[in-house]
């Protein structure tokens, strides 16, 4: 029997084990193009309606992108802590609860790790955001309980939790040479979480680090929110978001369709007959039907996740390029339809959310009763810390701190394994 640290992320998940007394991240999948082993598994499932099989991670995304007949689900973690948790979703002939779907995904992670270390794994430290729900402590408690029940149902016997930024702090502590007051910033797909931690080479094996955690805070804003804002500010115009009623000038198409289409974990809600009927009805009443036809085609082809993935990729590309094109040729080939997206549009679209994230960092400092000048190191992890605006903010708010960029996708996972070793060995 053995232990693991499991980081169930909104966008990517990892699982790590101990081998020869070292934390090792499990290679979970091969990169479909390069063939290199990947220690992240995108948090995605694909239910194939022909074979009745479920695939996971990059394979799931590939099956969907290659047009296999079925249903893709992503960002299931966002449903934990939301009111959608008790609902299910119809997949082919059966209704599945979201807890069942999360269990399928976590089982696949656990099995990959068991096959890697050739033994059963019965003990887990699961990562969790500081808040599953920012406003409702009861929903937050229920979300953790739900995750615990799912972990039990898939065979874990010893289950405990650690806040994700604290796990990242444990990972960073492995490399330091002297005591530091570190601000850990973990911005992922669903949440942004922060810890201020007194780290020291001499403290790292201490069992109880409670006194060294000077502050711990988080906010439910992450990369999937940035995707939604970028989508609503740009590509949704091609689908009629601002088209007006023929008989009610100034009144636009109902916004909720576009918000669902731009929100990873709500896209499946559009694939109901009721939505299709409402949109067909609305089409007759709109001043411009062409973009609405495009929207109907997109929904009928169940291409919502494909569009969301293109928007996400545009956001990622904009960390290296001033502008990029989102190709919509899969909907209209000749002339080929596309949508130009600029870095300026991205920064305008996400500015409000980013300011809230930066305000939450200030609240973290207040919690610790510290000023920016008291922070010796900023350690960043999580994919969304690659955004230009985040780097600019850190350098201007903490000009005297040393900035250390951690492993964007594995730092939390490595820290969770170290925590599992501390708790269960
Ligand atoms: N270069 C980049 N620029 C901007 N965002 C990026 C970049 N690379 C990845 N991202 C975003 O990072 C997010 C995924 O990060 P990560 O894998 O750390 O999240 P997660 O751990 O799954 O989520 P969470 O911890 O919030 O549950 C996605 O929203 C992705 O689009
Ligand atoms: Mg994460």
What would you say about this model in short?
Among the domains are: 2-164 and 414-424, ATPase, nucleotide binding domain (Nucleotidyltransferase, domain 5), CATH 3.30.420; 224-320, no CATH class.
CATH-scheme architecture of one domain: 2-Layer Sandwich
What is the CATH homology-level superfamily of one domain? ATPase, nucleotide binding domain
Q: What small molecules does the structure contain?
A: adenosine-5'-triphosphate, magnesium ion
Estimated radius of gyration: 22 Å
Helix and strand content put the structural class at alpha+beta
Quote the CATH topology of one domain.
Nucleotidyltransferase, domain 5
Q: In DSSP terms, counting alpha (H) and pi (I) runs of 4 or more, how many helices?
A: 12
Which residues form runs of ≥5 with pLDDT under 50? none
Oligomer: single chain
Family: Belongs to the heat shock protein 70 family.
Protein name: Molecular chaperone
GO molecular function, one term: ATP-dependent protein folding chaperone
Keywords: ATP-binding, Nucleotide-binding
């Amino acid at each position: 029997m053995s232990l693991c640290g499991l980081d169930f992320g909104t966008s990517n998940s990892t699982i790590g084990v101990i081998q020869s007394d070292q934390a090792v991240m499990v290679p979970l999948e091969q990169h479909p193009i390069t063939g290199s082993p990947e220690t992240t598994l995108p948090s995605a499932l694909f239910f194939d309606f022909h074979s009745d099989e479920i695939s996971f991670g990059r394979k799931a995304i590939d099956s969907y992108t290659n047009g296999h007949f079925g249903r893709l689900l992503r960002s299931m973690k966002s449903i934990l802590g939301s009111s959608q948790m008790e609902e299910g979703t119809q997949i082919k002939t059966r209704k599945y609860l979201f807890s069942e779907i999360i269990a399928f995904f976590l089982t696949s992670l656990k099995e990959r790790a068991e096959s890697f270390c050739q033994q059963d794994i019965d003990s887990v430290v699961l990562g969790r955001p500081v808040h599953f729900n920012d406003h409702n402590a009861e929903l937050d408690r229920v979300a953790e309980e739900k995750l615990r029940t799912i972990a039990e149902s898939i065979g874990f016997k010893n289950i405990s939790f650690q806040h994700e930024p604290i796990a990242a702090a444990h990972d960073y502590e492995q490399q330091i040479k002297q005591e530091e007051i570190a601000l850990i910033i973990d911005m992922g797909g669903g949440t942004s979480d922060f810890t201020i931690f007194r780290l020291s080479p001499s403290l790292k094996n201490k069992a109880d680090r409670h006194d060294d955690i000077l502050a711990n805070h988080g906010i439910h804003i992450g990369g999937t929110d940035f995707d939604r804002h970028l989508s609503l500010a740009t590509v949704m115009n091609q689908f009629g978001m601002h088209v007006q009623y023929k008989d009610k000038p100034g009144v636009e198409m109902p916004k909720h369709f576009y918000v669902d289409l731009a929100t990873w974990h709500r896209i499946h809600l559009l694939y109901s007959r009721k939505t299709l009927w409402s949109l067909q009805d609305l089409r007759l009443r709109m001043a411009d039907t062409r973009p609405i036809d495009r929207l109907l085609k997109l929904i009928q082809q169940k291409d919502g996740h494909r569009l969301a993935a293109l928007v996400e990729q545009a956001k990622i590309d904009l960390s290296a390029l001033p502008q990029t094109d989102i190709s919509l040729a899969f909907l209209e080939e000749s002339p080929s339809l596309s949508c130009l997206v600029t870095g300026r549009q991205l920064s305008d679209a996400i500015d409000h959310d980013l300011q809230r994230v930066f305000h939450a960092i200030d609240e973290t400092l207040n919690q610790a009763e510290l000023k920016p000048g008291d922070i010796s190191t900023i350690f960043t992890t999580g994919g969304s810390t690659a955004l230009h605006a985040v780097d600019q903010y850190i350098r201007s708010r903490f000009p005297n701190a040393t900035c250390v960029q951690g492993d964007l996708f594995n730092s939390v996972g490595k820290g969770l394994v170290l925590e599992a070793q501390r708790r269960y060995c």
